[in-house]
Amino acid sequence: MEDIQKKYFEETLLNDNILDALYDMRFDACTPIQAACIDPIIEGRDIMGVAQTGTGKTAAYLLPVLSCLDDGGFPDDAVNCLIMAPTRELAQQIDQAMQGFGYYLDGISSVAVYGGNDGNRYNNEMTALKKGASVVIATPGRLISHMQMDNIDLSKLSFFILDEADRMLDMGFSDDILTIAKQIPKSCQTIMFSATMPAKIENLAKTLLKNPLNVKIAVSKPAEKIHQSAYVCYQKQKEGILGEIFKTQQKRVIIFSGKKQRVKEIYRTLVKKNVSCGAMHSDLSQAERDDMMFRFKSGSIDVLVATDIVARGIDIDDIQMVINYDVPRDVEDYVHRIGRTARAERDGIAITLVSDDEIYLFKRIEKFLGREIEKNVLPAELGEAPDYKANKAHSTTANRNKKRHGGARRHGAYNKKNNHNNTDQKQKSNERNEKPVRHGRKEFSGNRKRKENTTVHPEKQSGS
Asked: Which of 49, 50, 258, 318 could be a cystine partner for 215, CB 3.0 to 4.6 Å?
């Protein structure tokens, strides 16, 4: 894709109602993914977008779709747009963004449909779907449930959007997506966004998209304001390192671990140390997860221990520190995790605890970043640390020996899966002026009556 020049929302095909909402939210300049996608979507093109969380991709499809729906020509009392999301958290966030961007729109309703709720919510979803909500935001499993009960009619659908398509496939929703796709009209405009472009996503795109415009935004490297460092240690030393960190830092911290059982263990450890904390993982009910996130956002708890369920798409601007209790297996996951800090022009700290078995993974991250991350000295009472530099030869020999016995297949598959990572990708940054300036468009008079039942604005322009 050719370089994308800086573009203002005023220069796009978005209608006045959408532009007025953006003006109120002080959003002036498009991010690269928005500049590339907004007008083609309004013009009716299918889109295959490759962009990570934080690039503004949610607005890249929501803004043009809402603009089109507001301009009219679509059936009333029918589902006109279906947005698929892999998790309930992302579905909720898209719904919040929808409310903000649609602040001046009349007659465009939306409903978020996701699992983990009580019977009352299911009934509310069913009612909204049967009435024909204009925009439906859904997780695959929950939508399939409603389809099986004939609660939703997709025969008049005009927009079919898959957000974080790669993650949906990783979670095993491939068959569900194809089942849903069979129910939509062939004339439906389809838009796919994915953080990566493995073969399975290419195959899905060939199945669903018609002559798509391919847009690829390079994987951004972490913000410069994030001070990254690491402790090289043995697994049994990690608890002691965590205790050392919390001698000085106990406010606005997220601790990530890839395993929910370990999240529970870390949580119990911190409670014993009298740290005000909570845990977020898939064993919690939706109500419990919503309550936990509310408590953390509001500051009633200082530390959140979580699986990668909150690594993508959760916007909290005042996170001071992110701790990777284990090294994520994918570079993108590392970027997503530490990207929770240093937001809204703030500084942030990211610390990764690297066990001897995880050194090869962390070196892969350093290779992507193009530099070596600072290594902290272990507290003396914890004993000696593994030799980070010597580990390279050790790991290579060990992996070679494992391959002889067929024991390195999993690592080999991982390496193959991650060959798509491009270490020379350039950082893309969102461009936003401090004070919006209207570019050649008449001033909004302020006389339009606002929708009384819409009060939520998205916390971020990107919505993800």
From this structure: 49
